Amino acid sequence: MQKTLELKSTSMLTVTAVLHSTDIGGLEVALSEAAGPEKDFFENDFTVIDIGHLSEDAVIDWKQLLALFRSCRLNPVLVRNAPQHMQEQILSNGLALDEIAAQPRIPPQPAAEVPQEPQPAPAPVQAPPVEVPAAPAVFVDTPVRSGQQVYAKNADLIITAVVNPGAEVIADGSIHVYAPLKGRAAAGASGNTQARIFTMSMEAELVSIAGVYSTNEAFAATVEKGLPTQIRLDGNKIRIKPVNGAM
Question: Which H or E run contains 97?
């Protein structure tokens, strides 16, 4: 019988869930067995969903799948090996894309015939610069509670109260938290690498910009709480510095 799911421990995030099937019934059985009779084995562990073993034409009901993971106390935050046609749907469901694996899959190409005479290489075509329109802003004036998700689609997100542990704030633009950031924050969710995250006190569980992420395990020892902080993307790395520090 073909397995439907593999659960693996990782160093960056706690669990990687490798899907071999999109059958919700089969996945529910596998997850329930792993979570135990009381579904208390996991403790809202950060989870990467790896879909690299699925076929290109696989159809995933993301809302149902995420609800299933959360019912077993797993907290999906990232998707690995996502094909290009799925990425917009994944982002719209509040998940980030793995910065390395979130590349379009290229099918193997047949070997080309060698021409009899060398041909001059075509001149490279410069892609026109993409202009990012100024984004509107979504304002949140109340604390974001554990388990709550706030998503600013095609906009910046401005929060004037604390983002509690277990809460998720997501924006296609930048995120400004004029209070402690203790939960998870994902800016540039639709791929805007220029987006940034600002907070009055950096205490986050996870931060992500355009799919590139870093967890508290990685930055806790080098980030001082209680200082205004900004998070931005530098190549393929997250940079976290005080607002007045050199970036």
Answer: strand 96-97
Rounded to whole angstroms, what are the CA distances from 145 to 114, 132, 168, 221? 62, 31, 9, 25
Q: Which residues pair with 185 in a beta bridge?
A: 169, 207
Q: How far is CA 211 from the centre of its chain?
A: 5
For the chain, domains (ranges, CATH) are: 5-97 (3.30.70.260), 137-242 (2.160.20.70)
Ramachandran region, residue 166 (left: φ > 0; alpha: ψ -120 to 50; beta: rest): left
Query: What are 183-221's pLDDT values in tens digits?
Result: 999 999 888 999 999 999 999 989 989 888 888 888 888
**Least confident residue range of 58-72, 91-105, 131-145:** 91-105
Counting Cα atoms < 13 Å in the Cβ hemisphere of 79 gives: 29
HSE, CB side, 13 Å, CA atoms: give it for residue 85.
Answer: 7
Cβ neighbours for 65, distance < 8 A, ≥ 6 positions apart:
22, 24, 27, 49
Task: Give residue for tokens 């997501």.
Answer: 170
